[in-house]
Amino acid sequence: MAILDILTEFATTGRWGPVATGAEWAEVTAAFGEPWIGTLTGPGEWPRLVAYGDLELSVCHCRRIVLVCVQTWRDVIELPSVTSGEPQGFPGPLTHQDVTRALDAAGCPWQPDPSLTFDDQCALTALPSRATFAFSGPVPGAEPVLNVMGLPNGLHDCPAPTSPEAGRSVRPGRS
After folding, report:
1. 3-class DSSP assignment, residue 17
2. Which of 11, 86, 164, 168 is the most buried (most CB within 10 A)?
3. How many H-runs (helices) and E-runs (strands) does the chain carry?
4. List of residues 6+ apart from 74 with CB closer than 8 A
């Protein structure tokens, strides 16, 4: 599978393998294994920021994914294999034209995102999933290059305890 196929799948369905906003954390670790784990706040606190190469996920107290991001600005984009979980590399960079052609070929409608278009940055939103693709021009007048693709934030009413003690006692994927 090529990187544009993966990004197009995210754009058309809001999902790639076990990864989607709102997906159960246990499903992701069952498919990909244990990730690098960090926090977005402080040590032992929630939400947790986890990464499988250039696939970044934010996991809520309730063990649901609330944010999905694929960093695409590198020369080699590393993502886990959806079949084995093993890291695999994909060539970058991807241009605005590469992405829009792939979305059009997949029949995925999209529109420019003026709220994220300023200076040397432009963005588009894939309508089926609301995935956002943000681009920047490496040099003035050059074809914009994809920096990141992200799914919309999965904000929800979390049923999990929010005390610091609750966050310190449990790791993602563990009870």
Report:
1. coil
2. 11
3. 4, 12
4. 54, 92
Q: Looking at the domain assignment, is residue 174 inside a domain? A: no
Distance CA 53, CA 157 (A): 29
- Interhelix angle 3-13/96-105, rounded to 10 degrees, is 60
- Given a contact cutoff of 8 angstroms between Cβ atoms, the answer to whether 22 and 146 are in contact is no
Length of the chain: 175
pTM exceeding the 0.85 threshold for the entire prediction: no
Burial label, 51 (beta-carbon count in 10 A; 0-12, 13-18, 19+) = middle
Instruction: Please write down the long-range contacts of 105-114, taking CB distance under 8 Å and 24 or more positions apart.
Output: 105/8, 106/8, 106/11, 106/12, 107/12, 108/8, 108/11, 108/12, 110/11
What is the model's pLDDT at position 15?
A: 94
Cα three-residue angle 151-153-157, rounded to 5 degrees: 145
**Considering the domain boundaries, does residue 175 fall inside one?**
no
The count of domains in the chain is 1
Full domain range(s) for residue 116 = 3-156
Spatial distance between the Cα atoms of 127 and 142, rounded to a whole number of angstroms: 26
CA distance 175 to 170: 6
7 assigned to some structural domain: yes
Instruction: Tell me the average confidence (pLDDT) per consecutive run of 10 residues in the chain, 175 residues long.
Output: 92 95 91 74 65 90 90 93 90 94 97 86 94 84 89 75 44 39
**For 98, phi and psi rounded to 5 degrees?**
-55, -50
